[in-house]
TrEMBL record:
The lineage of its organism: Bacteria, Bacillati, Bacillota, Bacilli, Bacillales. GO terms for cellular component: cytoplasm. Substrate binds at R53. Pathway: Metabolic intermediate biosynthesis; acetyl-CoA biosynthesis; acetyl-CoA from acetate: step 1/2. The record marks H142, R203 as: Transition state stabilizer. ATP binds at H170, I171, G172, N173, G174, D245, L246, R247, G292, V293, G294, E295, N296. This is Acetate kinase. It is an enzyme of class 2 (transferase). Its cofactor is Mg(2+); Mn(2+). Mg(2+). Can also accept Mn(2+). Its EC number is 2.7.2.1. Gene3D superfamilies: 3.30.420.40. One of its GO terms (molecular function) is acetate kinase activity. It is found in: Cytoplasm.
Length: 358
């Protein structure tokens, strides 16, 4: 069972249904039918372009691209970098090609924005052949979201993105932080896979790789099983021994020591990355919180920013009492500005699709 979401342009609300969807072809047929039933389009012939979010573009792509057979072959060639996601993404493309023949399709990659990172931030200190032969390096994720935040905060401040040093904190069940310098990704917390960086709902975040063979030796677990546990049984869920949902953990923080420890680790990791990226960029002009937790958890923003006063950021607690809308949450005299900005990856995909489908 999967869930279909459709956006009604007349009421601006989500229409949700849970349906049995056997494959991508059927899913696309149902989606197109919904678009007409809801009046978003009168006829599918009105559709002039289709945008697709694709998790991984490897080193091939630093921007969105119009779909051709050659481009699909490139994406297929790096399937092993995102085996759970890229194949499904491409199935969606091929289904739209069947249903809407002749309509341009555009690929927007989560990794593309981070291709501007210098080698000093994306290279791992492993034998060079691991990188040159197998592509072992930092790629990052949430790039479309971080790109949106970099552009939006510049718009709010009335400045050119090239003039700013911004730290974008995309904090949800999956989470990453990005150092945006002069309008480009300079560094980001997720690495070769989305497993590294911040503590997340079920992911470990940064961890010594030597723990893997150690745990294997002690428990008899396979490497694959340990990696599965690091992805799906760790993070907040693992440390709290309670839940992957930050709200559940925070609710019992005062009475459950494991929950309190989980939150302490969670908050500390965010502060570590923000501080590190301020140092890496030799300063910061704005710190932005976005995504589910970043946009709604007022207490997370407060605890993070109160631990970063050495940077010159001062939180205004009254302004911080906001959820899910654009707001400056720093004091008027704060040297570093702090914002809540709801992310909008969909609008970035739509813009790229419009521009490339002309």
């Amino acid at each position: 069972m999967k869930t279909v979401y459709s956006l009604s342009n007349s009421t601006v609300k989500k229409n949700k249904e849970t349906l049995d969807i056997p494959n991508h072809d059927v899913a696309i047929e149902m989606l197109l039918e919904k678009l007409t039933k809801l009046g978003i389009v009168q006829d599918v012939k009105e559709i002039e372009g289709v945008g697709h979010r694709v998790v991984h573009g490897g080193e091939f792509y630093d921007s969105s691209v119009l779909v051709t057979d050659e481009e699909l072959a490139k994406v297929d060639s790096i399937e092993d970098l995102a085996p759970l996601h890229n194949p499904a993404n491409i199935k969606g493309v091929r289904s739209f090609q069947k249903e809407l023949p002749g309509v341009p399709n555009v690929l927007t990659f989560d990794t593309a924005f981070h291709q501007s990172m210098p080698k000093s931030t994306y290279m791992y200190a492993v034998p060079r052949e691991f990188y040159e032969k197998y592509g072992v390096r930092k790629y990052g994720a949430h790039g479309t979201s971080h790109r949106y935040i970099g552009e939006k905060v510049a718009e709010i401040l009335g400045k050119d993105p090239k003039e700013l040093k911004t730290i974008s904190c995309h904090i949800g069940n999956g989470a990453s932080i990005c150092a945006i310098k002069n309008g480009k990704s300079y560094d980001t917390s997720m690495g070769f896979t989305p497993l590294s960086g911040l503590v997340m709902g079920t992911r470990t975040g940064d961890i010594d790789p030597a723990t893997i063979p150690y745990i294997a030796q002690k428990t008899g677990l396979s490497l694959e099983e340990i990696v599965r546990i690091f992805n799906f049984e760790s993070g907040l869920k693992g440390v709290s021994a309670l839940s992957s949902d930050l709200r559940d953990v925070e609710d019992v923080r005062d009475t459950n020591p494991h929950a309190a420890e989980a939150i302490d680790v969670y908050i500390n990791r965010i502060k570590e990355y923000v501080g590190a990226y301020a140092a890496a960029m030799n300063g910061v002009d704005a710190i932005v919180f976005t995504a589910g937790v970043g946009e709604n958890a007022t207490w997370v923003r407060e605890e993070v920013l109160e631990g970063l006063t050495f940077l010159g950021v001062q939180i205004d607690k009254e302004k911080n009492n906001v959820r899910g809308k654009v707001a400056e949450i720093s004091t008027a005299d704060s040297k570093v500005k702090a914002f809540v900005i709801p992310t909008d990856e969909e609008v970035m995909i739509a813009r790229d699709t419009y521009n490339l489908s002309k």
